[in-house]
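Collaborator request log, item 7. Partner lab (contact: R.S.) asked for a structural prediction of Phospholipid-transporting ATPase to inform their binding assays.
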Amino acid sequence: MTVPKEMPEKWARAGAPHSWSRKKPSWGTEEERRARANDREYNEKFQYASNCIKTSKYNILTFLPVNLFEQFQEVANTYFLFLLILQLIPQISSLSWFTTIVPLVLVLTITAVKDATDDYFRHKSDNQVNNRQSQVLINGVLQQEQWMNVCVGDIIKLENNQFVAADLLLLSSSEPHGLCYIETAELDGETNMKVRQAIPVTSELGDISKLAKFDGEVICEPPNNKLDKFSGTLYWKENKFPLSNQNMLLRGCVLRNTEWCFGLVIFAGPDTKLMQNSGRTKFKRTSIDRLMNTLVLWIFGFLVCMGVILAIGNAIWEHEVGTRFQVYLPWDEAVDSAFFSGFLSFWSYIIILNTVVPISLYVSVEVIRLGHSYFINWDKKMFCMKKRTPAEARTTTLNEELGQVEYIFSDKTGTLTQNIMVFNKCSIHGRSYGDVFDVLGHKAELGERPEPVDFSFNPLADKKFLFWDPSLLEAVKMGDHHTHEFFRLLSLCHTVMSEEKNEGELYYKAQSPDEGALVTAARNFGFVFRSRTPKTITVHELGTAITYQLLAILDFNNIRKRMSVIVRNPEGKIRLYCKGADTILLERLHHSTQELLNTTTDHLNEYAGEGLRTLVLAYKDLDEEYYEEWAERRLQASLAQDSREDRLASVYEEVESDMMLLGATAIEDKLQQGVPETIALLTLANIKIWVLTGDKQETAVNIGYSCKMLTDDMTEVFIVTGHTVLEVREELRKAREKMMDSSRTVGNGFTYQEKLSSKLASVLDAVAGEYALVINGHSLAHALEADMELEFLETACACKAVICCRVTPLQKAQVVELVKKYKKAVTLAIGDGANDVSMIKTAHIGVGISGQEGIQAVLASDYSFSQFKFLQRLLLVHGRWSYLRMCKFLCYFFYKNFAFTMVHFWFGFFCGFSAQTVYDQYFITLYNIVYTSLPVLAMGVFDQDVPEQRSMEYPKLYEPGQLNLLFNKREFFICIAQGIYTSVLMFFIPYGVFAEATRDDGTQLADYQSFAVTVATSLVIVVSVQIGLDTGYWTAINHFFIWGSLAVYFAILFAMHSNGLFDMFPNQFRFVGNAQNTLAQPTVWLTIVLTTVVCIMPVVAFRFLRLHLKPDLSDTVRYTQLVRKKQKAQHRCMRRVGRTGSRRSGYAFSHQEGFGELIMSGKNMRVSSLALSSFTTRSSSSWIESLRRKKSDSASSPSGGADKPLKG
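Returned to partner:
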């Protein structure tokens, strides 16, 4: 390593990290960060980023070119630009250029305005942040500087409640021992205060003069996005000092409860961890988006085919017929042959027929999605009054996919449960506390319990804390050694911060609800954690204040799954206290505790069976000599620049062994309100719910029963706990065999091996009965291996419920990815914590719950709300409606544009393939952006087939979305066929009529302009009537847009043929009075009516027959609603019938004739979701189920034949 001249030789010998180089390489990748305090000249050599941030994309000069460049990255925009260029070529242009440029400019302008508005707010936010003031130490004097002028190596002063300007190394603070308190809500969503501490050597630099002389140099890791890790070394006064995340203040944090502090800038601006984490999330696209892209390519191919056909027709016509009329119809100068004429005609028809894919389609889709997003945001029934939190659609691109979800992957803690922890039970030295027994020795239920334990003896007790077993308090008061040691551990082994606003009023700030519950329990039982410093912890033990010297904290992480503290008591005795997960801690106990271990394990299993969260507590006495030796090794490991964390973990592992068992705690985390009902409803909608949790198996299974995922009626619950690949494979094989053996549809000849002979054998349709699968994390690790993942997937998918326990955040994401990879199904992941972020980002749809664990999950999600129960409304109401509306919108949109465009194709055969248009060019321009845009938008935004109550009442209505029935390739071709059929009638009926028709005065009716007006008017009326038929839910807006669009059409039509416009633009509007004269002819109106009737009647007849012969579930629901309304009306009429006579018969006047027949018919019975599905079995459910089977076969069994169930 090259040693800089400024670095003392002793530092060089001490060594810098081997994986870091001296400086930033020439290609710009920084491999280490060096920052010297109070030396801007030295730091400028490295050309580090300034503290100015820029989240905006444009400025005044670059906006137009950059934005246009970005917009033309879209294939559709490039396609229409290409058409515009074609229209500017006179030889092939059959339409004026404005027919394309008007809609294109409109779309580009709307998008540009939206982008400019977004960027304006980014500029505003950037300026606000960059111009914040900060106190910077320059030349020994504190000066006010804007944040953007702060540089790496500067020392800045922060005051209470100020935001941290850059990533700082904490040097000193107003608090003892260099402590300071920060809030990290902007970084990770945690509102609890966290403590940071300066290293001892700099904690005394509180004076400006001392800080001005500070010239230490920090060598550390390069900029990265790891919020919880930092590794570096401070070189000062010929010594080196290890630096960790506990010494850092990150940009975005807020200083709290600390008068002031000083920090050295390490990372600035875009290099800070906050900005490093602000990268773009992967863009998610819906299945409808992907299908639309495919269909647009097909349509373009169809367009080319039509162009080729008409071009060939033109070449033949010009060769056979056109050459005879050269005197009257000469070729253009550039045209020298019939073949070249056909070539030019091809491009002319590409221009004319391009409206099969109008640019307004993409704009309309985005407008509809935006409207759906606002409906979610405005839904008062998804607003949590307690937290004042509304539902939020954080994306506008996935709404319709909410109506197609088949798999939900849910976290447990904080998602299904409240994540509000209550100390419920404990086991101390083999005795269990927490249950209350009656005089007969039976456990008392909650309602039968006596008064809770009285903690009035303790003035510092938390009055909200409740405990029911008085024997535990008696053990404390009796001086039981093990009980005292148990609560002493809870009061010492934690990272809770204590705040005492008034005398005796303690407020605990815990980083997790579990930890807060345990410290509060110790507090109420007389072991009150009172205060802490970096080196001491003060606890009031039964009224006596005792200060322990804090020697070390062996912190918790997801790998260790435990935390320990090493303390020295006032007598000088050193002891390690440890608490952690049972799977980890029980392996590290001394062999002499085996008998106690067996008893405690029984208690742990009992607690987990009740759905409680468990921790094991242990301790170990250390002698002075051993501790000194271990502390030295720990120091060396903490100073290591290579693999520092691994070395520390190894040192920690050594001391956390041969511990003595104290007992265990059990904390209750209650279910959220409405969780069982929500899961039951979603299950009826054929949505499979998988729970992925870090809790132990027994706890997760109990919660599964509580929330009705698991039921006693299930055929079997398979539990996979194998520790090796072979064990897991065998357990999965047995589960498959049991499911197959119990299936009535599979004959004796079907063996398991035959079922697995295909690459992905599906047993979903072959399984009879309901099963559940529970798998542990260590087993899941094997099950997710490449050679076993398919077997695991099919076993899990054949089960009604799946629970994965003890899983890591990575495993959660892997499970979601596995289902996405092999199943043609939409997945949704829902969670509330940072450990759910990877799962949320992996799924098609991510939902974040704004709960107790901060807002990291919310920030990574596509949708967010505060309670799990709102998921049923998000999917069954908003999701189903969004899917329904988008499908109806697309079907109608393609229909109306094919009906509009194909008329040109038929006309080509009657105009010598000359690329003459049927319609007026202004009509072509306005058709999609004025005449037909608003009605279809209204349908796409407001339509609904059944009211929201019925959507929740009949969850089977959700299934068409899962099967993608409402818009697929088949539905697309049906819409295209209907559009082509309409275009044929639209052209040939007026053509046939006009061939022989005359005006009122006997003159020939047929002329080009009259024909164009007649066809255009017929088209607008037909598509308006069609959308009226398609609209299932009429609002005032629908009426206004549909009939208003018709009125606007006639107004513009008459205006364009008026004298006024002719006088102003005589070259553009030549046909004065044509519309008035044409539409004054009764023959024309009869033609329009005939065309409309012939186009619409087949649609009406088809829908009438389908409604009566093969109704779908929504038709049945609407019918039952209609019957109920009629019955209510009959009831009201019957109640108004007056009575005559004096006798009052209780029977005669309380009954009405006909109700016996009505009851026998069942028409007055409320149809449940299950009864309703069976009611429509013949016509609805049967075909849905058959489609589902076909989909399962195609998705899961490419070879399929061996997997079909046999009919026995």
